Amino acid sequence: MNVLAARRKSSVSAEGVTYTDVDTIFRESDVVSLHCPLTSETKELVNATRLSVMKPTAYLINTSRGGVIHEQDLADALNEERIAGAGLDVLSVEPPPVSNPLLTAKNCLITPHIAWASRAARQRLIEATSENVRGFVDGSPQNVVV
Fold first, then answer.
1. Catalytic site includes residue 81
2. Which domain holds residue 88?
3. Total count of domains within the chain
4. Is 65 noted as a catalytic residue in this protein?
């Protein structure tokens, strides 16, 4: 498997990953998985232009922020079968209005912003919460933000 990634900070790297530009990722990937914050640079990062260069067999996955996708452009690409499908855990407005075009788009799976909710993630949340409460009661608060 070839893994392509784009990075905002040049100091970040991972073994087995080839770093390249975003356009190359959309053009060459079988699966594009988005993991980025919503910023002025990433707003509608996925738009008609980027979707038009994706392989017709490619899938788009978004577990980051809904605003990184131009939703009408994605719905059009799905309905016209220009890409194979999309898996979305986030939308630009949650809960989505019934008029959101992705709700009726072909091959679009939408989950209600629960990608974080694995059994392991919930266990870590319980443990961190317990440690925070214990620290507060013992007089040594954890994760103090000043």
1. no
2. 3-115
3. 2
4. yes
